[in-house]
Amino acid sequence: MARLSFRELPLTAKIAIGIAFNNAWWSIEEFVIDRSNVWRYMPDYRVGKVCIWDVSVALLTVIGLWWLSKPRGPRRVATDLRVST
Fold it and tell me: CB within 8 A of 25, min separation 6: which ones?
């Protein structure tokens, strides 16, 4: 079985990976940041509410997944090199 690159995965798999990354952030936020009072040192953080930190992580996840989905290398343009006479 051939190994697939990230860009070859179906959309549902990419969405599931994005949800997993955001779920990891929410777990870190709940179990580390909120419970050990690290939030006091984070500007604009709101305990138990959506804040700029949550939006930033979600945005970075979407941008990262989009970047991994982009085709690599030079674009291949189909050109017809035949000369009609």
Answer: 54, 57, 61
Residue 38 structural domain: 12-69
The per-residue pLDDT for range 31-71, each reduced to its tens digit, is 988 888 888 888 888 888 888 988 999 999 999 999 988 87
Q: How many angstroms separate the CA atoms of 61 and 27, rounded?
A: 15
**Residue 16 within a domain:** yes
Q: How many CB atoms lie within 10 A of CB 57?
A: 17
Higher pLDDT, residue 4 or 56: 56
What pTM was computed for the model? Answer: 0.70
Q: For the chain, what is the domain count?
A: 1
Position 76 in a domain? no
Amino acid at 63: I
In this structure, is residue 22 part of a structural domain?
Answer: yes
Residue 82 lies in a domain: no
